[in-house]
Amino acid sequence: MLKELFLKNRSCRTYDENYKVSREELCDMVDCARLAPASMNVQPFCYRLVYTPEELSLVQPLTGWAAGLPGMKLPPEGKCPTAFIVICQDTEQFGPQERFLKDVGICALAIQMRACEMGLAGCMIGSFDRRKIHDVLGLAENVAPLLVIAIGKGDEECRITEVKDGQTRYFRDENNVHYVPKRALSDIVF
Ligand SMILES: Cc1cc2nc3c(=O)[nH]c(=O)nc-3n(C[C@H](O)[C@H](O)[C@H](O)COP(=O)(O)O)c2cc1C
């Protein structure tokens, strides 16, 4: 079951905008992050939900997509995610934002896997304008945005493929099918 979900869970960069992700769905995803392992069980994160048309239009231009496909406009016009979850840390209470970076990945995966299980899709976005996201979302000065996760109803085909000649960069074919090369198990286990 879980392994099937890992096979299905691909980073999505084209969404059906007709599907509006609800606040309740986003809370359900964050609830999985809440239950995730946490170093020393500190749980330093808070989660800013973005789902109104006004805030979506402010956040979307501040996110960077598919640096591995230069020249491609992703998401395409009219195919944007209909929600974002911004993982934040109160740096006054929990120290510098570099302190819990491992925890960030764990919580982000919990959120994305739950989205996948709910029939939705996501994409972690590390490439975003930190200062501007901070400001457009009206975050307090001591609250730092660490990672953005786009969420929506996926509207593209993604397939896992083998790594050939050490090439791990993702690519698309003429039908816009997105291929994600994953290294072979025999190459990574020793
Ligand atoms: C920490 C992290 C940051 C990422 N940042 C971006 C990003 O800024 N923009 C983007 O389009 N994809 C981003 N991705 C998605 C990766 O490109 C994607 O996970 C990778 O190509 C493998 O594809 P898969 O998730 O479908 O297995 C990020 C992934 C991770 C784990």
Question: Average pLDDT across residues?
Answer: 98
Write the CATH fold name of the largest domain: NADH Oxidase
- What small-molecule ligands were found? flavin mononucleotide
Which class of secondary structure composition applies to the elements? alpha+beta
Strand order of the main beta sheet, please? Answer: 1-2-4-3
- Total number of beta strands: 7
The percent range for strand residues is: 15-25%
| Helix fraction bin | 25-40%
Poorly predicted residue ranges: none
Gyration radius over CA: 17 Å
Overall CATH architecture of the largest domain:
3-Layer(aba) Sandwich
Roughly how many Å apart are the termini? Answer: 26 Å
Distinct helical segment count: 7
Q: How many structural domains can be distinguished in the coordinates?
A: 2
Look at the structure and name the CATH superfamily of the largest domain.
NADH Oxidase
List the main descriptive attributes of the protein structure presented here:
7 helices, 4-stranded antiparallel β-sheet, 22% strand, 7 strands, NADH Oxidase, 190 residues, 31% helix, binds flavin mononucleotide, 3-stranded mixed β-sheet, alpha+beta, putative fmn-dependent nitroreductase like fold, 2 domains, globular
Write a concise synopsis of the structure shown:
The protein is α+β, with helices and mostly antiparallel strands and 190 residues long. It has seven helices and seven strands. Flavin mononucleotide binds next to strand 3.
